[in-house]
Amino acid sequence: MSQTMTDRMGELREIVADVLEVEPEEITDDGLFTEDHDADSLQAIDVLARIEKTYKVDIPQSELPNMNTLQDVYKVVASYAGWRD
């Protein structure tokens, strides 16, 4: 994983952890938010809104079903933000 990718994963982990009200260390790269942390649809929308604000990118809510893990979130955000790392 490149340093840029590592940094961005860390930032995304912080956002998700803050919304789910857990410690960042509890968010694993491949853990399912709904199963591991009882995340609901309102929290998913909050995560999406914070990501959009942080990275100044528009991601349609139709992508939410594709954002089940931190790795999934990274892939979706990277595709809309044009990250190539």
Short structural description:
The chain is mainly α and 85 residues long. The protein has 4 helices and no strands. It has one domain: ACP-like (Non-ribosomal Peptide Synthetase Peptidyl Carrier Protein, Chain A).
Would you write up a description of this structure?
Residues 3-81 form the Carrier domain. The protein is mainly α. The chain has a single domain (3-81), classed as Non-ribosomal Peptide Synthetase Peptidyl Carrier Protein, Chain A. It contains 4 helices and no strands. The longest helix has 18 residues, at 3-20. It is globular.
Write the layout of secondary structure elements.
Blueprint: H1 3-20, H2 33-37, H3 41-55, H4 70-81
Domain Carrier: 3-81
Protein name: Acyl carrier protein
Pfam families: PP-binding
Measured between the Cα atoms of the first and last residue, the distance is 8 Å
Based on secondary structure, the structural category is mainly alpha
Average of pLDDT: 95
**Over all CA atoms, what is the radius of gyration?**
12 Å
| Helix run count | 4
Topology pattern, helix = H, strand = E: HHHH
Number of strands: 0
Strand content: under 5%
Task: Quickly give the CATH architecture.
Answer: Orthogonal Bundle
| CATH topology call | Non-ribosomal Peptide Synthetase Peptidyl Carrier Protein, Chain A
Helical percentage: 55-70%
Silhouette: globular
CATH H-level superfamily: ACP-like
Please give the domain count: 1
CATH class: Mainly Alpha
Low-confidence stretches: none
Biggest pleated-sheet summary: none
